[in-house]
Amino acid sequence: MAITQATELLATWEAGLDRTFDGRALLLHHAARPDTGGDSEALLSLPVGAREADLFALRRSLFGERMQVRLECESCGADMEFDLDAGEFARSLRVPEAAPVRIAEDGWVVEFRVPNVADLTAAARHADARRALLARCVVSVVRDGEVAPGRVPRGVAGGVPRGVADAARHGVADGVPHGADDGVPPGVPRGGALVDVLPPSVQRRIAEAAEAADPAADVTLNINCPECGTATRAELDIASYLWTELDAWARDLLLDVHLLATAYGWSEPEILALSPLRRRYYLELCADV
To answer: Is the pTM of this model over 0.85?
Structure first.
């Protein structure tokens, strides 16, 4: 499934050095799905949970099952280090259905689609990322049998579909004009009119339904501190985790290339063609000289 040759991985790493979080995540997703032929649009249209599942699978193929995680206790500040099983996580991730989700709450009936990767990226450009994300994903709003009006006063508050935290965390741009190009699906009034009419209780219900429909979009850990026993809740961001591993691997590999090229005069392609075991053996011989 995934690219595993050193030269291809190095190319992925090099391409991502000057990119933002979203750009690096997309590069990793391309690596996880080489069958897409470089079709970014196809990857961006996938639900967030589908991307997370793909990246967990890529991580396993490149670096194995064992994932080392380090957290700081929210209560006492103690460092907590533990191992996770990437295979167990991958098997537990369920890719959401493509069909829209419908919820009913307090006389409202709302139909929405699960946020995809493009939704998070677009929402991050808005000053109110949660409102932008809802505007993109809400398909229809009906109350007491009547379609909600196309224009109502602004004022969104309350819940948000799972994944908006990622959009906010990875760079919300302030000052984006209201009604700017946000990629709202056809048929949905621009400017978030359908969102504005929803009370907070309905928005919270949408958030709960979105989480249930795509649980893999937000992999959250609850770890009990061995020092004080307090539970610490933290999101496992597989894209950031995997990029950090790839960056460390690439820098170590380039150092190996430098040392072997200096010692034997071999070219980079010749060194990369060696298996990791043979490269390590030659490096040990160099150290013994």
So the answer is: no
